[in-house]
Amino acid sequence: MSAIAVAPATHTTSAGHLPKWAPWALLAICFLIAGTIFAFANSGGDPADFNIALTLVVGMILYMGLIFVVSTVAESRRHATDRLMTALVSAAFTVALLPLISLLYTVLINGLARFDGEFFSFSMRNITGEGGGAIHAVWGTLLITLGATIISVPIGLMTSIYLVEYGQGKKLARGITFLVDVMTGIPSIVAGLFIYSVFALIMGPGTRIGIMGSLALSVLMIPVVVRGSEELLRIVPNELREAAYALGVPKWLTIIKVVMPTAIAGIVTSIMLAIARVIGETAPLLLTVGIVQGMNLNMFSGQMSTLPVFSYMQAKYPGLPADAFIDRAWAAALTLILIVMVLNLAGRLIAKVFAPKLSGR
């Protein structure tokens, strides 16, 4: 039989494509145009007043129109419609990120004014105007959050282990699940009032010490840890448990050696989310911990200062000059964001180190 050469089919849809870099170049041009417009509108003003959110929105609108026109001319109407829909989805994602981007930009611009060595070396003792720092508030936040984590994580993990491994179908487990769901929606000030009332009955009215703040934050942290850990323990395959049982491993050791290491990455993430949930709380700490102008590292004696309360008090009750107080408030907010970022990075590193290693990777 003679071989018949068949010419490869030419797909018309492969012709007339835009280069891969073209959409990104058009997007950069649109953002540059939008940024230039709003930069001229804000010329001579404070850089913090630059409207980055509206810049992104206008840039995405310009991009959608430009990519549709360019794609229609260079490619086809079908390709243009596809690129327009892709741009719409990307624009929706950008809009969802706008609050976060705008918040980070505003805090960064305003917080850098006092983000210096003095801010992290001195407290506010004997400071009535400019100068001073928030080292006492930084230490207070770290200690109180650490205390809340030490209280919440064991309770939350053991509760989630009971719900998943021991309490399935039991009335007690259903009751605990209901109470955890209710606690998840408790306003933070209610947690602060609860702890304040308990210590007022035990130690007298007006008592404010660091451990009270840790207990108030733990009331908010525990349900977050329980719900997150519970869901992660449930997705651990039952085959792993059954394999351990078949080898004669008791249930408690299976949980420690098999179930927990398998879900450790997600559990650490849920703990980090719980910490991020409470580290910025102001109302419960204002009620239970109070505020001082100097350093106090004893959580069982005297009031302490925390970054959220410090930032609130500096912004709410500014003295003279007022700009010095506002700058310290913004710097404290920026410090709090950086602490949360560092804790999340540390949590991811811990999860990566202790997560089970998969063969072939």
Automatic annotation (TrEMBL):
Part of the binding-protein-dependent transport system for phosphate; probably responsible for the translocation of the substrate across the membrane. Gene3D superfamilies: MetI-like. The chain crosses the membrane at residues 21-40, 52-74, 86-113, 133-164, 176-203, 209-226, 258-279, 329-351. Keywords: Cell membrane, Membrane, Phosphate transport, Transmembrane, Transmembrane helix, Transport. Residues 138-347 form the ABC transmembrane type-1 domain. Pfam families: BPD_transp_1. InterPro entries: MetI-like (IPR000515), MetI-like_sf (IPR035906), Phosphate_PstA (IPR005672), Phosphate_transprt_permease (IPR051408). It is a multi-pass membrane protein. The keyword Repeat does not apply. The gene is pstA. The keyword Membrane applies. Belongs to the binding-protein-dependent transport system permease family. CysTW subfamily. It is found in: Cell membrane. This is Phosphate transport system permease protein PstA. It comes from the Bacteria. Its main location: membrane.
